[in-house]
Design goal:
The protein has 219 residues and is mainly alpha-helical. The chain has 10 helices and no strands.
Length: 219
């Protein structure tokens, strides 16, 4: 039966889902942004080519990206326990979500930076800019694409957070599985699905609005 307790549970599930999604996206960029920049800089045609570093990063990103999330969620449970003290719940779910999201984010960052006009980089080099300054220039030129990528990352991570409900990850995915699927309550199942879709659409709307506002080409 749909009552006040169920409503409050779903509302709490929304906030838990947002907590997992936003925290994972932040941590994913803490790891993924430097990896993406390093991939561009150490590439064979990068600013500081380094075959060993590039190859190691490339292999790590490819291997982790190809790992199915649900399997990764189970495999790294010992690591999750070491970091947060338990292997279930919203905070614990952030660990595998971050490890899964970071390589994905690294590839998107790499793609965005590779789109930067090489003439801009050459101009910065001609003015004596050091590597740190050039990286800042690259990020500045690619900011529109990077913001679009944040929007994509948020939607993808939100979907992964819903899958984590299978192992008690918390949030709307957990509610959909425990109360919708296992208890055969289709109303809860459909409400959580609709809410997940709405959250993704809101994130995409805000992200696209922000990217258009910052896009110099639209001015």
């Amino acid at each position: 039966m749909w009552d006040n307790a169920t409503t409050m549970m779903v509302v709490e599930g929304i906030f838990v889902t947002l907590y997992m999604t936003l925290a994972t996206t932040f941590m994913g960029y803490v790891l993924g942004l430097p990896m993406g920049i390093a991939l561009v800089i150490t590439a064979p045609k990068g600013l500081r080519p380094n075959k060993i570093i590039y190859k190691v990063l490339d292999v790590v990103v490819n291997v982790v990206r190809s790992f199915p999330f649900l399997i990764l969620l189970i495999v790294i449970q010992p690591l999750t326990r070491i970091i947060v003290g338990k292997s279930y719940g919203p905070t614990a779910t952030i660990v595998p979500l971050t490890l899964s999201a970071a390589p994905f984010i690294a590839r998107m960052v790499e793609s965005s930076l590779l789109e930067v006009d090489h003439g801009v980089i050459e101009a910065a080099q001609s003015m004596g800019a050091n590597l740190w300054t050039i990286r800042k220039v690259m990020i500045g030129e690619a900011k529109t694409s990077l913001i679009v990528n944040v929007t994509i990352a948020l939607g993808t991570i939100l979907g992964y957070s819903a899958m984590a409900g299978i192992v008690g990850g918390g949030g709307l995915g957990d509610i959909a599985i425990r109360y919708g699927y296992y208890r055969y309550d289709s109303s809860i199942m459909w409400v959580t699905v609709v809410l997940l879709i709405v959250l993704v659409q809101l994130m995409q709307y805000v992200g696209m609005k922000l990217s258009k506002k910052l896009d110099k080409r639209t001015r």
